[in-house]
Here is the input.
Amino acid sequence: MDFLAEAQKLLPETVALRQKLHQSPELAFAEVQTSRLAADELSRLGFEVARGVGGTGVTGLLRGKENAPLIMLRFDMDALPIQEESGAEYASRNQGVMHACGHDAHTAIGITAARLLTRYREEFNASFLLVFQPAEETGQGALAMLKDGLFSSQKPDYALGVHVWNSLPSGSFVIKTGDLMAGSGMFEVRITGKGGHAALPHQAVDPIAAGARIVTALQSIMAQNVNPLESAVVGVTMFHAGTASNIIPEEAELQGTIRFFSQDMWSLLCERLTRIVVDTAGAAGCAAEIKLTASTPPLVNDVLVASNARSALQKILPEARLLTDYRTMGSEDMAFFLEQIPGVFIFVGSGGAADQNAYPHHHPRFDIDENVLASASALLLQTAYELQIAAGRENPR
Ligand SMILES: [Zn+2]
Ligand SMILES: [Zn+2]
Here is the structure.
Protein backbone atom coordinates (compact mmCIF):
# COMPACT_ATOMS: atom_id res chain seq x y z
CA MET A 1 0.00 0.00 0.00
CA ASP A 2 1.44 3.28 -1.17
CA PHE A 3 -0.37 6.15 0.55
CA LEU A 4 1.61 8.80 -1.30
CA ALA A 5 0.89 7.39 -4.76
CA GLU A 6 -2.83 7.17 -3.89
CA ALA A 7 -2.84 10.70 -2.48
CA GLN A 8 -1.10 11.94 -5.63
CA LYS A 9 -3.86 10.35 -7.72
CA LEU A 10 -6.42 12.25 -5.63
CA LEU A 11 -4.44 15.52 -5.83
CA PRO A 12 -6.58 17.14 -8.57
CA GLU A 13 -9.69 16.56 -6.41
CA THR A 14 -7.90 17.76 -3.26
CA VAL A 15 -6.78 20.95 -5.03
CA ALA A 16 -10.26 21.57 -6.47
CA LEU A 17 -11.75 21.17 -2.99
CA ARG A 18 -9.17 23.50 -1.44
CA GLN A 19 -9.89 26.15 -4.07
CA LYS A 20 -13.63 25.80 -3.55
CA LEU A 21 -13.16 26.30 0.19
CA HIS A 22 -10.77 29.17 -0.48
CA GLN A 23 -13.48 30.97 -2.45
CA SER A 24 -15.98 30.68 0.39
CA PRO A 25 -14.04 31.36 3.59
CA GLU A 26 -15.95 31.50 6.88
CA LEU A 27 -14.89 33.13 10.15
CA ALA A 28 -14.48 31.39 13.52
CA PHE A 29 -17.67 29.62 14.71
CA ALA A 30 -19.40 30.58 11.43
CA GLU A 31 -17.97 27.66 9.40
CA VAL A 32 -21.48 26.55 8.45
CA GLN A 33 -20.95 25.55 4.82
CA THR A 34 -17.44 24.22 5.43
CA SER A 35 -18.50 21.97 8.28
CA ARG A 36 -21.58 20.81 6.35
CA LEU A 37 -19.35 19.87 3.43
CA ALA A 38 -17.00 17.92 5.73
CA ALA A 39 -19.88 16.18 7.53
CA ASP A 40 -21.65 15.23 4.29
CA GLU A 41 -18.46 13.81 2.83
CA LEU A 42 -17.67 11.81 5.99
CA SER A 43 -21.23 10.43 5.98
CA ARG A 44 -20.96 9.46 2.35
CA LEU A 45 -17.71 7.61 3.13
CA GLY A 46 -19.35 5.63 5.93
CA PHE A 47 -18.01 7.44 9.00
CA GLU A 48 -20.28 7.81 12.04
CA VAL A 49 -20.74 11.58 11.97
CA ALA A 50 -21.51 14.05 14.76
CA ARG A 51 -22.39 17.61 13.73
CA GLY A 52 -22.46 20.78 15.80
CA VAL A 53 -19.77 19.66 18.24
CA GLY A 54 -18.61 22.81 20.06
CA GLY A 55 -20.58 25.05 17.72
CA THR A 56 -19.66 24.28 14.12
CA GLY A 57 -17.29 21.36 14.76
CA VAL A 58 -17.72 17.98 13.09
CA THR A 59 -16.39 14.55 13.98
CA GLY A 60 -16.32 11.33 11.99
CA LEU A 61 -15.63 7.96 13.59
CA LEU A 62 -14.38 5.01 11.56
CA ARG A 63 -14.50 1.95 13.77
CA GLY A 64 -11.77 -0.68 13.51
CA LYS A 65 -11.58 -3.93 15.42
CA GLU A 66 -12.62 -3.92 19.04
CA ASN A 67 -9.81 -2.79 21.39
CA ALA A 68 -7.86 -1.33 18.49
CA PRO A 69 -6.20 2.00 19.34
CA LEU A 70 -8.20 5.13 18.49
CA ILE A 71 -6.22 7.62 16.43
CA MET A 72 -7.50 11.19 16.12
CA LEU A 73 -6.72 13.31 13.05
CA ARG A 74 -7.43 17.00 13.56
CA PHE A 75 -8.09 19.65 10.90
CA ASP A 76 -9.10 23.27 11.47
CA MET A 77 -11.58 25.06 9.20
CA ASP A 78 -11.79 28.78 9.96
CA ALA A 79 -10.65 31.83 7.98
CA LEU A 80 -9.51 35.33 9.01
CA PRO A 81 -11.00 38.85 8.82
CA ILE A 82 -8.68 39.96 5.98
CA GLN A 83 -9.53 41.35 2.53
CA GLU A 84 -7.79 39.04 0.06
CA GLU A 85 -5.36 40.61 -2.44
CA SER A 86 -3.86 37.44 -3.93
CA GLY A 87 -5.37 38.00 -7.35
CA ALA A 88 -5.89 34.24 -7.69
CA GLU A 89 -8.83 33.12 -9.81
CA TYR A 90 -10.04 31.18 -6.77
CA ALA A 91 -9.70 34.25 -4.49
CA SER A 92 -12.26 34.80 -1.72
CA ARG A 93 -15.73 35.85 -2.77
CA ASN A 94 -16.62 36.80 0.79
CA GLN A 95 -15.86 40.46 1.38
CA GLY A 96 -13.29 40.97 4.13
CA VAL A 97 -12.86 37.26 4.87
CA MET A 98 -9.92 35.19 3.69
CA HIS A 99 -8.26 31.82 4.18
CA ALA A 100 -4.92 33.46 4.91
CA CYS A 101 -3.58 30.73 7.18
CA GLY A 102 -4.22 27.62 5.07
CA HIS A 103 -7.08 26.09 7.03
CA ASP A 104 -8.84 25.56 3.67
CA ALA A 105 -5.88 23.32 2.78
CA HIS A 106 -6.20 21.50 6.13
CA THR A 107 -9.88 20.74 5.53
CA ALA A 108 -9.06 19.44 2.04
CA ILE A 109 -6.17 17.34 3.44
CA GLY A 110 -8.63 15.92 5.97
CA ILE A 111 -11.22 14.94 3.37
CA THR A 112 -8.51 13.26 1.27
CA ALA A 113 -7.23 11.43 4.37
CA ALA A 114 -10.81 10.24 5.03
CA ARG A 115 -11.10 8.91 1.47
CA LEU A 116 -7.79 7.05 1.78
CA LEU A 117 -8.74 5.64 5.18
CA THR A 118 -11.95 4.09 3.87
CA ARG A 119 -10.02 2.65 0.94
CA TYR A 120 -7.35 1.10 3.21
CA ARG A 121 -9.61 0.30 6.13
CA GLU A 122 -8.63 -3.38 6.22
CA GLU A 123 -4.91 -2.57 6.42
CA PHE A 124 -5.31 -0.76 9.74
CA ASN A 125 -5.69 -2.24 13.16
CA ALA A 126 -6.98 1.07 14.47
CA SER A 127 -10.13 3.15 14.76
CA PHE A 128 -10.06 6.73 13.53
CA LEU A 129 -11.68 9.89 14.84
CA LEU A 130 -11.51 12.70 12.31
CA VAL A 131 -12.02 16.09 13.94
CA PHE A 132 -12.90 19.14 11.85
CA GLN A 133 -12.43 21.98 14.32
CA PRO A 134 -13.86 25.51 14.24
CA ALA A 135 -12.31 28.74 15.49
CA GLU A 136 -8.59 27.99 15.69
CA GLU A 137 -7.72 31.61 14.95
CA THR A 138 -9.51 32.86 18.04
CA GLY A 139 -7.99 30.05 20.13
CA GLN A 140 -11.46 28.91 21.21
CA GLY A 141 -12.48 26.05 18.91
CA ALA A 142 -10.56 23.14 20.45
CA LEU A 143 -11.77 24.09 23.94
CA ALA A 144 -15.35 24.45 22.69
CA MET A 145 -15.24 20.90 21.28
CA LEU A 146 -13.69 19.54 24.49
CA LYS A 147 -16.34 21.31 26.61
CA ASP A 148 -18.98 19.79 24.36
CA GLY A 149 -17.76 16.30 25.28
CA LEU A 150 -15.44 15.49 22.38
CA PHE A 151 -13.48 13.01 24.52
CA SER A 152 -16.22 12.04 26.97
CA SER A 153 -17.46 8.89 25.23
CA GLN A 154 -14.15 7.90 23.67
CA LYS A 155 -10.77 9.39 24.42
CA PRO A 156 -8.35 8.89 21.53
CA ASP A 157 -5.03 7.14 22.25
CA TYR A 158 -3.12 9.40 19.86
CA ALA A 159 -3.69 12.72 18.10
CA LEU A 160 -2.13 13.86 14.82
CA GLY A 161 -2.34 17.22 13.09
CA VAL A 162 -0.64 19.20 10.34
CA HIS A 163 -0.19 22.84 9.41
CA VAL A 164 0.96 24.03 5.99
CA TRP A 165 3.93 26.31 6.64
CA ASN A 166 4.93 29.05 4.22
CA SER A 167 8.08 30.01 6.15
CA LEU A 168 9.62 26.80 4.79
CA PRO A 169 9.97 25.74 1.16
CA SER A 170 7.96 22.82 -0.19
CA GLY A 171 9.62 19.49 0.53
CA SER A 172 10.54 20.53 4.09
CA PHE A 173 8.84 19.07 7.15
CA VAL A 174 9.13 19.94 10.84
CA ILE A 175 8.65 16.94 13.14
CA LYS A 176 9.96 17.97 16.54
CA THR A 177 9.88 16.16 19.86
CA GLY A 178 8.80 18.29 22.83
CA ASP A 179 7.76 21.93 22.57
CA LEU A 180 7.08 23.21 19.05
CA MET A 181 4.84 26.25 19.53
CA ALA A 182 4.62 28.76 22.36
CA GLY A 183 1.82 29.16 24.84
CA SER A 184 0.04 32.48 24.59
CA GLY A 185 -1.76 34.93 26.78
CA MET A 186 -2.71 38.58 26.73
CA PHE A 187 -2.69 41.54 29.09
CA GLU A 188 -4.96 44.56 29.35
CA VAL A 189 -3.91 47.62 31.35
CA ARG A 190 -6.08 50.55 32.37
CA ILE A 191 -4.17 53.58 33.69
CA THR A 192 -6.13 56.24 35.51
CA GLY A 193 -4.71 59.72 36.03
CA LYS A 194 -6.44 63.07 36.34
CA GLY A 195 -7.67 64.82 33.24
CA GLY A 196 -7.27 68.53 32.59
CA HIS A 197 -6.14 71.33 30.31
CA ALA A 198 -3.00 70.56 28.34
CA ALA A 199 -1.68 74.05 29.08
CA LEU A 200 -1.83 73.34 32.84
CA PRO A 201 -0.07 69.97 33.18
CA HIS A 202 0.80 70.65 36.83
CA GLN A 203 -2.91 70.52 37.71
CA ALA A 204 -3.44 67.15 35.99
CA VAL A 205 -1.92 63.66 36.21
CA ASP A 206 -1.06 62.48 32.74
CA PRO A 207 -1.90 58.81 32.04
CA ILE A 208 -0.24 58.96 28.59
CA ALA A 209 3.16 59.76 30.10
CA ALA A 210 2.65 56.91 32.58
CA GLY A 211 1.67 54.52 29.75
CA ALA A 212 4.72 55.48 27.72
CA ARG A 213 6.97 54.78 30.70
CA ILE A 214 5.25 51.43 31.20
CA VAL A 215 5.85 50.44 27.56
CA THR A 216 9.54 51.24 27.95
CA ALA A 217 9.85 49.61 31.39
CA LEU A 218 8.32 46.34 30.10
CA GLN A 219 11.37 45.91 27.84
CA SER A 220 13.39 45.24 30.98
CA ILE A 221 11.58 41.93 31.55
CA MET A 222 13.30 40.27 28.60
CA ALA A 223 16.59 42.05 29.29
CA GLN A 224 16.78 41.43 33.03
CA ASN A 225 14.32 38.79 34.23
CA VAL A 226 14.20 36.08 31.56
CA ASN A 227 17.07 33.61 31.38
CA PRO A 228 18.83 34.55 28.12
CA LEU A 229 18.88 30.85 27.13
CA GLU A 230 15.07 30.69 27.25
CA SER A 231 12.50 32.18 24.88
CA ALA A 232 9.57 34.47 25.64
CA VAL A 233 7.77 37.53 24.27
CA VAL A 234 6.10 40.45 26.05
CA GLY A 235 4.80 42.87 23.43
CA VAL A 236 2.57 45.93 23.68
CA THR A 237 0.33 45.95 20.61
CA MET A 238 -2.31 48.52 21.50
CA PHE A 239 -2.14 51.96 23.19
CA HIS A 240 -5.31 54.05 23.25
CA ALA A 241 -5.69 57.42 24.95
CA GLY A 242 -6.88 60.95 24.40
CA THR A 243 -9.31 62.84 22.18
CA ALA A 244 -7.74 66.21 21.32
CA SER A 245 -4.45 68.12 21.27
CA ASN A 246 -5.34 70.41 24.16
CA ILE A 247 -6.80 67.87 26.61
CA ILE A 248 -4.96 65.66 29.06
CA PRO A 249 -7.17 62.58 29.21
CA GLU A 250 -8.29 60.84 32.37
CA GLU A 251 -7.39 57.35 31.22
CA ALA A 252 -5.09 55.35 28.93
CA GLU A 253 -5.40 51.75 27.87
CA LEU A 254 -2.74 49.25 26.80
CA GLN A 255 -2.97 45.72 25.48
CA GLY A 256 -0.38 43.21 24.46
CA THR A 257 0.66 39.61 23.97
CA ILE A 258 2.65 37.18 26.10
CA ARG A 259 4.38 34.06 24.68
CA PHE A 260 6.14 31.36 26.69
CA PHE A 261 7.18 27.71 26.66
CA SER A 262 6.61 26.72 30.31
CA GLN A 263 4.23 27.39 33.16
CA ASP A 264 7.17 28.74 35.20
CA MET A 265 7.86 31.31 32.48
CA TRP A 266 4.15 32.26 32.36
CA SER A 267 4.17 32.82 36.13
CA LEU A 268 7.38 34.85 35.98
CA LEU A 269 6.08 37.08 33.16
CA CYS A 270 2.76 37.65 34.92
CA GLU A 271 4.48 38.55 38.17
CA ARG A 272 6.91 40.99 36.51
CA LEU A 273 4.22 42.57 34.29
CA THR A 274 1.94 43.23 37.24
CA ARG A 275 4.71 44.67 39.36
CA ILE A 276 6.12 46.93 36.63
CA VAL A 277 2.69 48.22 35.54
CA VAL A 278 1.51 49.01 39.06
CA ASP A 279 4.80 50.50 40.29
CA THR A 280 5.54 52.55 37.16
CA ALA A 281 2.02 53.96 37.11
CA GLY A 282 2.31 54.66 40.82
CA ALA A 283 5.60 56.53 40.36
CA ALA A 284 3.83 58.72 37.79
CA GLY A 285 1.00 59.44 40.21
CA CYS A 286 -1.51 57.21 38.38
CA ALA A 287 -3.46 54.14 39.40
CA ALA A 288 -3.26 51.04 37.18
CA GLU A 289 -5.28 47.87 36.84
CA ILE A 290 -3.95 44.90 34.93
CA LYS A 291 -5.88 41.88 33.69
CA LEU A 292 -3.92 38.82 32.55
CA THR A 293 -5.63 36.13 30.46
CA ALA A 294 -4.09 32.79 29.51
CA SER A 295 -5.15 31.73 26.00
CA THR A 296 -3.40 28.57 24.78
CA PRO A 297 -0.82 26.35 26.50
CA PRO A 298 2.52 25.56 24.80
CA LEU A 299 2.16 22.89 22.09
CA VAL A 300 4.20 19.83 23.07
CA ASN A 301 4.79 16.83 20.80
CA ASP A 302 5.08 13.32 22.25
CA VAL A 303 8.39 11.43 21.92
CA LEU A 304 6.96 8.14 20.62
CA VAL A 305 4.45 9.68 18.23
CA ALA A 306 6.99 12.16 16.83
CA SER A 307 9.52 9.39 16.22
CA ASN A 308 6.88 7.35 14.38
CA ALA A 309 6.06 10.40 12.26
CA ARG A 310 9.74 10.76 11.37
CA SER A 311 9.91 7.05 10.35
CA ALA A 312 6.76 7.56 8.30
CA LEU A 313 8.28 10.54 6.47
CA GLN A 314 11.46 8.56 5.82
CA LYS A 315 9.36 5.79 4.24
CA ILE A 316 7.14 7.86 1.97
CA LEU A 317 9.54 10.72 1.16
CA PRO A 318 13.14 9.69 1.84
CA GLU A 319 14.37 12.77 -0.05
CA ALA A 320 12.42 15.21 2.13
CA ARG A 321 14.22 17.82 4.24
CA LEU A 322 13.40 16.99 7.85
CA LEU A 323 13.82 19.63 10.56
CA THR A 324 13.73 18.38 14.14
CA ASP A 325 14.81 21.45 16.11
CA TYR A 326 12.50 24.13 14.67
CA ARG A 327 10.32 26.12 17.09
CA THR A 328 8.06 29.14 16.72
CA MET A 329 6.61 31.71 19.14
CA GLY A 330 3.31 31.31 17.26
CA SER A 331 0.50 29.50 19.10
CA GLU A 332 -2.08 26.86 18.18
CA ASP A 333 -5.08 25.52 20.04
CA MET A 334 -4.15 21.98 18.92
CA ALA A 335 -2.11 22.35 22.13
CA PHE A 336 -5.30 21.73 24.18
CA PHE A 337 -5.70 18.30 22.56
CA LEU A 338 -2.00 17.47 22.99
CA GLU A 339 -2.23 18.36 26.68
CA GLN A 340 -4.59 15.41 27.08
CA ILE A 341 -3.41 12.96 24.42
CA PRO A 342 0.09 12.03 23.20
CA GLY A 343 0.46 13.20 19.65
CA VAL A 344 2.33 15.22 17.09
CA PHE A 345 1.73 18.43 15.18
CA ILE A 346 3.67 18.57 11.91
CA PHE A 347 4.60 21.60 9.80
CA VAL A 348 4.47 20.88 6.09
CA GLY A 349 6.61 23.40 4.16
CA SER A 350 4.33 25.01 1.58
CA GLY A 351 6.29 28.06 0.41
CA GLY A 352 7.18 26.64 -3.02
CA ALA A 353 10.78 26.94 -4.25
CA ALA A 354 13.37 28.01 -1.68
CA ASP A 355 14.02 31.34 -3.46
CA GLN A 356 10.34 32.12 -3.96
CA ASN A 357 9.83 34.15 -0.74
CA ALA A 358 6.22 33.09 -0.25
CA TYR A 359 3.91 35.55 1.51
CA PRO A 360 3.63 34.78 5.22
CA HIS A 361 0.54 33.48 7.01
CA HIS A 362 -2.12 36.14 7.73
CA HIS A 363 -0.92 38.28 4.77
CA PRO A 364 -3.56 39.48 2.23
CA ARG A 365 -1.53 37.81 -0.55
CA PHE A 366 -0.95 34.54 1.27
CA ASP A 367 -1.15 31.45 -0.92
CA ILE A 368 0.37 27.98 -0.77
CA ASP A 369 2.04 25.48 -3.06
CA GLU A 370 -0.87 23.07 -3.51
CA ASN A 371 1.41 20.21 -4.56
CA VAL A 372 2.25 19.60 -0.89
CA LEU A 373 -1.34 18.62 -0.08
CA ALA A 374 -0.83 15.01 -1.22
CA SER A 375 2.24 14.49 0.96
CA ALA A 376 0.41 15.94 3.98
CA SER A 377 -2.49 13.45 3.71
CA ALA A 378 -0.12 10.56 2.99
CA LEU A 379 2.15 11.46 5.91
CA LEU A 380 -0.78 11.43 8.34
CA LEU A 381 -1.85 7.97 7.17
CA GLN A 382 1.66 6.55 7.17
CA THR A 383 2.23 7.97 10.67
CA ALA A 384 -0.99 6.34 11.87
CA TYR A 385 0.14 3.10 10.27
CA GLU A 386 3.56 3.18 12.01
CA LEU A 387 1.91 4.17 15.26
CA GLN A 388 -0.56 1.27 15.37
CA ILE A 389 2.36 -1.14 14.88
CA ALA A 390 4.35 0.58 17.64
CA ALA A 391 1.26 0.61 19.88
CA GLY A 392 0.67 -3.09 19.24
CA ARG A 393 4.27 -3.83 20.20
CA GLU A 394 4.01 -1.87 23.44
CA ASN A 395 0.52 -3.03 24.29
CA PRO A 396 -0.28 -6.41 22.75
CA ARG A 397 -4.05 -6.84 22.94
ZN1 LIG B 1 -3.39 31.55 11.60
ZN1 LIG C 1 -3.33 28.33 11.22
Notes: The mean pLDDT is 97.
